[in-house]
Amino acid sequence: MSQVASLTWFARHELNLAWRDWIGLMSGGRKLRDRAVLIGMGIFALALHGVAYAVLSPFFKAGGTIDLAALVMLTGMLVLTFTMMLSQAMESVTRAFYSRDDLDLILSSPASSRDLFAVRIAMMALTTAGMSGLMVAPFINVAALMGGPQWLAGYGVVLAISLCATGGAVLIALALFRTVGAKRTRLVAQIAAAVVGASFLIGIQVVAIVSYGSMSRWSVINSDTVINNVPGMDSLLWLPAAAVSGHLGALIIVLAAAAGFFVLAARTGAIQFQRIVVSALSVATGNVQQKRGNKTFRATSTHRALMQKEWVLLGRDPWLISQTLMQVLYLIPPALMLWVNFGEDAHLSAILAPVVVMAIGQLAGGLAWLTISGEDAPDLVATAPVAPWAVMAAKVQAVLIVVLAIVAPLVLGIAALSMWGAAVTFVGALVAALSAIVIQLWFRAQSKRTNFRRRQVASKASTFCEAFASISCAGTASLAAAGNLIAVVPGLLLVIVMVVAWLLSPPRS
């Protein structure tokens, strides 16, 4: 009886932590009952439902018939949801065993650690379903409103996908522990999570570019080639899609299969985690002996030493590496578009310029936050015999050098199509990066690098200003690359965004 009570308490504890984490993510650390937070969440939910209505209304206005094309479309959306959930689950599993401070408490608890790990894995599945389901829920709600309540079965499919994704993430983590060891598992898992999260979207875009010369993923899914070569409607491949549309038998089979896989994976993980978690604890606490030996120190300038310090810290951050890799991965489709159309279409630069500029702006914002606000030793830096402006200048330059190293190959590729397009793309990327850096300077607030995943909610004003600045730079670059004088309009919008950001920024002494 006491064992059941312990597991019940632990499950309730995990749910409380998940709820607190979700509230912090949505409210940026403010109280949930804050009227502004509630209004913001309501507007966000309405906006998502509006997007869902715009996407689904043509299908339901045409009759909402579940034919082979509809099954292909639904299956594509389910695969996208699965990759998103698997990426999130892999990150959750890794973070739970490297960033959580209660593992030693679990191991010393009189309750069975195997059962406690099983409960934690189950909570991961529920939180993964809840977090990812927030993005899918508007589409299910709109489908139920326009097509009938049978579409609410989509929530059951979301739960099934979450069970499969979490079970798969547990098995992947176990495989990594056995193959690469506890020390490298954290970095490899974070990188794998980034690759998995972007793989389906990028893969579809790559196929679209190679086959149709378009970057639209829907040109592949809706193509006659796919429709004519997929299995018939009676194939088991379409079972999850049929479950989404309200087929009760298909829903039961999908849920039963997902639950069986999850139970097997969770049981395997709960047994083996007890053995390998000790290794994870030693890595997380940094109990690694440094190699002894003579080191040669080279004389260098203070400015260069500060930049090297930032580069070393950036290279040591597994979460940053995964997020940076994801930004770089999204540059693969425009790079492939350049290679396929090498020297053939000068107007292609007008399509590629906004993609590159937008990606670089977002990447620069993340790097700038880490170097400017994510300082784990602020007192040490503040007491160093270096002027504050020199420290900040080194941080900014370190970010710009990383950004330029990434954007340079793409600009050279665009130059083969159009020198004007390459110049516009380079200037646009540089302006987007500088805008993001300046906004981070204006809104800088001391925080730990471990809070990188929460930086978007730390300041809603800076987040929106950074996003609008990137969009404005991308729009300006696209129109300027096409030689359209209307490019002045988004350029002026960028100026307005920066002025608003300066006015909203906290005062500096």
Instruction: Summarize the biggest pleated sheet.
Output: none
How many strands in all?
A: 0
Beta-strand percentage range:
under 5%
Quick one: overall form? globular
Can you write the helix and strand succession as a string?
Answer: HHHHHHHHHHHHHHHHHHHH
Rg:
25 Å
> What is the typical, i.e. mean, pLDDT?
76
Counted by DSSP, the helix tally is 20
List low-pLDDT spans.
Answer: 284-293
Query: Gap between N and C termini, in Å?
Result: 60 Å
Structural class: mainly alpha
| DSSP helix fraction | over 70%
Q: What secondary-structure arrangement, pairings included, does this model have?
A:
Layout (H helix, E strand, L loop, with lengths): L1 H26 L7 H27 L6 H31 L4 H5 L5 H35 L6 H59 L5 H4 L2 H6 L9 H6 L3 H37 L17 H15 L1 H12 L2 H9 L8 H25 L4 H5 L5 H28 L3 H24 L12 H4 L1 H22 L6 H17 L5
Helix pairs in contact: 1-5, 2-5, 3-5, 3-6, 5-6, 5-10, 6-10, 6-12, 6-13, 11-16, 12-14, 14-16, 14-17, 14-19, 16-17, 17-19, 19-20
